[in-house]
Design goal:
The protein has about 300 residues and is of the alpha/beta class. It has 2 domains: about 200 residues, Alpha-Beta Complex (DHBP synthase); about 80 residues, no CATH class. Helix content is about 30%, strand content about 20%. Strands 1-8-2-3-7-4-6-5-9-10 form a 10-stranded mixed β-sheet, sandwiched between helices. It is globular. The structure holds threonylcarbamoyladenylate and magnesium ion (MG).
């Protein structure tokens, strides 16, 4: 079921969520499969629908800094980052507040919580209408390619597709940057639209990300998989390859003919979905510059190829 991007669609989405159900909602990054964070049933339904391993905690979306403060302990660093980047594609991993109205499955039992205030007007409208924080991982089957359109959500879930609030194509197209605030510094858990130097300009250099515990499935080597072998750094396609191009390498689907990295990020998952659906058994991707949001694009491509 597609919900229209108007007052009626927003009201219906809010109604389903308040009743403890799931709705796929557009954000500026990717579509999220949402449920109220304080209710076991809706959260369990997210894990079930995604086929998500239970050690993978969810991002909680908030409407305001005040709402974030009810869920987590926010220090000056968190407030500084929120001031600069919220609403927007930055997720903060911060200490969970005692007694926060969030069921344990949301944080997978961790003493921390991942919070983000999204910028998409439809997502904000639903958050406002529901009046509660919404947990929402990307609206795709676990391990698969993230959705940047209602059609991607439908294809990923098939018969079991949830209601989708139609926000068209996501502008950023790649998941939020995840920053963990630790006692002694900060770590980049997932590169995203907000590049590391922009965070470092406010907080100083990052600590190395520790690999001893998987905290972000974005950190699992194999993720974002289109279900076919993926070869990186290709200049030319072999006969059985679908080529994803960039800049002056056109390919079968170009991330950006003009060589624009923001456009490439916005089109990355659409091209991977198209490559997955093509009749060619293998996928090749040309070289993407490791610059700005190119870092996040290459991170996703390496995992798609793993
Ligand atoms: O842009 C986004 O962040 C999208 C949209 C829908 O907001 N959401 C998204 O969610 O990408 P998901 O579930 O696909 O990725 C959430 C990431 C995972 O890598 C998860 O492990 C990490 O956030 N995460 C959640 N809670 C965490 C925590 N307490 N500590 C460390 N990582 C956490
Ligand atoms: Mg995901």
């Amino acid at each position: 079921m597609i919900l229209p991007p108007d007052d009626a669609g927003i009201a219906r989405a809010a109604e389903i969520l308040l009743a403890g159900g799931n709705v796929a909602l557009p954000t500026e990054t990717v579509y999220g499969l949402a449920a109220r964070a304080d209710t076991e049933a809706g959260i369990a339904a997210i894990y079930r629908a995604k086929g998500r391993p239970e050690f993978n905690p969810l991002i909680v979306h908030v409407a305001s800094l005040r709402q974030a403060g009810q869920l987590a302990l926010l220090d000056e660093r968190a407030e500084l980052l929120a001031m600069h980047f919220w609403p927007g594609p930055l997720t903060l991993v911060v200490p969970l507040r005692d007694g926060a109205p969030v069921v344990p499955a949301v944080t997978a039992g961790l003493p921390t919580i991942a919070l983000r205030m999204p910028a998409h007007p439809l997502m904000q409208a639903v958050l406002g209408k529901v009046g509660l924080p919404l947990a929402a991982p990307s609206a795709n089957r676990s391990g698969g390619v993230s959705p940047t359109s209602p059609e991607h959500v439908r294809v990923s879930f098939g018969q079991e597709a949830p209601a989708v609030l139609d926000g068209g194509v996501c502008a950023d197209g790649i998941e939020s940057t995840i920053v963990a605030l630790r006692e002694t510094g900060w770590q980049l858990l997932r590169p995203g639209p907000i590049a590391e130097p922009a965070v470092a300009a406010l907080l100083g250099d990052a600590m190395p990300a520790t690999a001893e515990r998987i905290e972000a499935p974005g950190q699992l080597a194999r993720h974002y998989s289109p279900g076919k072998p993926v070869r990186l750094g290709a200049q030319l396609a072999e006969a059985d390859e679908f080529l994803i191009g960039f800049d002056n390498i056109a390919g079968d689907c170009s991330l950006s003919p003009a060589g624009d990295l923001a456009e490439a990020a916005a089109r990355l998952y659409a091209c991977l979905h198209e490559a997955a659906a093509s009749n060619r058994p293998r996928i090749a991707v040309t070289t993407i510059p490791e610059l700005g949001i190119g870092v996040a694009i290459n991170d996703r491509l390496r995992r798609a190829a793993a």
